[in-house]
């Protein structure tokens, strides 16, 4: 019998609203998640972050670095002149034209890391980005620079939101969105994973979970495709939660969050994992360590 392949299921948007956060806590306590990504710039973080610290004992907790939802933690006159983050389309356009105010963004990265640590009492297990902004040109470099300055290599891993082309095509269902993200993260940013490894930061190997957030979609059937052709340390992204008025006021993704939560709490998830010889695990427990110098990992470790 072959050894189980490690897979992590990561819930994004913890802290977005009470309903979303409570739903994620339910899935964590049921053992159906092994990672949760936290938004820390909103008003719910201080209260809900304390709950996450108490109740996420068997999961990695990461910073969901944010540049596109709500307000920055301190003024960003060039990036957010009205005091509100711009939409992701604007951030992408500025990134690709090399017009992002990177000094402001670097300062916001530090503020969000500080706010995470103030509540959790430690550095994040990993860092990713809301709407995957952490992989954009310029943003990626500012993030890795900030994390290197904090000596987080070997302690904190980075989410690689792209995947190999052959694995994307084998999954089929999420291919269009996954291919677009692979282009943005790997092509336009010249290789997020390579940049992370050069500075001694481990990443996941394999990524899926792209959704069109269609309430008429069978989420269980879609999730089955996310488990196809997994990488060696595979990460499946999801967006579970309960719908409340606070969520409706901030985000158009609503009903599908409850559908995802219902699936995660159902017996079908465990059945799917067992059928494929997949074992839920924290990626922080199975990632290779960087070289003692903090530089590039050995070729064997990074493959």
Automatic annotation (TrEMBL):
Q: Which UniProt keywords are given for this protein, alphabetically ordered? A: Carbohydrate metabolism, Hydrolase, Magnesium, Metal-binding
- The UniProt entry's coiled-coil ranges are none
Q: Where is this region: Disordered?
A: 284-303
SUPFAM superfamilies from the UniProt entry: Glycoside hydrolase/deacetylase (SSF88713)
Asked if the Swiss-Prot or TrEMBL record annotates the protein with the keyword Hydrolase, the reply is yes
Q: Which cofactor does it need?
A: Mg(2+)
Q: Which Pfam families match?
A: YdjC
Entry protein name? ChbG/HpnK family deacetylase
């Amino acid at each position: 019998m072959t050894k189980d392949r490690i897979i992590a299921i990561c819930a994004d948007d913890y802290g977005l609203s009470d309903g979303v956060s409570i739903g994620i806590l339910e899935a964590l306590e049921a053992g159906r998640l092994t990672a949760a990504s936290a938004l820390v710039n909103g008003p719910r973080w201080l209260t809900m972050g304390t709950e996450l610290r108490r109740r996420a004992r068997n999961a990695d907790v990461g910073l969901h670095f944010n540049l596109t939802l709500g307000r920055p933690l301190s003024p960003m006159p060039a990036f957010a002149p009205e005091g509100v983050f711009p939409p992701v389309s604007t951030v992408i356009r500025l990134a690709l034209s090399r017009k992002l105010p990177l000094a402001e963004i670097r300062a916001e990265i530090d503020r969000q890391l500080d706010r995470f640590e103030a509540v959790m009492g430690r550095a994040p297990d990993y860092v990713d980005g809301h709407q995957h902004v952490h992989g954009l040109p310029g943003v990626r470099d500012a993030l890795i620079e900030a994390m290197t300055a904090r000596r987080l290599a070997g302690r904190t891993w980075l989410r690689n939101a792209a995947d190999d082309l052959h694995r994307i095509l084998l999954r089929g269902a999420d291919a269009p969105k996954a291919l677009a993200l692979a282009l943005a993260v790997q092509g336009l940013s010249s290789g997020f994973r390579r940049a992370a490894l050069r500075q001694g930061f481990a990443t996941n190997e394999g990524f899926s979970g792209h959704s069109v957030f269609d309430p008429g979609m069978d989420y269980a059937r879609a999730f089955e495709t996310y488990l196809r052709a997994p990488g060696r340390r595979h990460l499946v992204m999801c967006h579970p939660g309960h719908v409340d008025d606070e969520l409706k006021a901030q985000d158009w993704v609503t009903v599908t969050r409850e559908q995802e939560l219902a699936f995660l709490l159902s017996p079908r998830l465990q059945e799917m994992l067992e059928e494929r010889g997949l074992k839920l695990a924290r990626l922080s427990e199975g990632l290779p360590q960087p070289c003692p110098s903090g530089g590039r990992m050995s070729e064997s470790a990074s493959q």
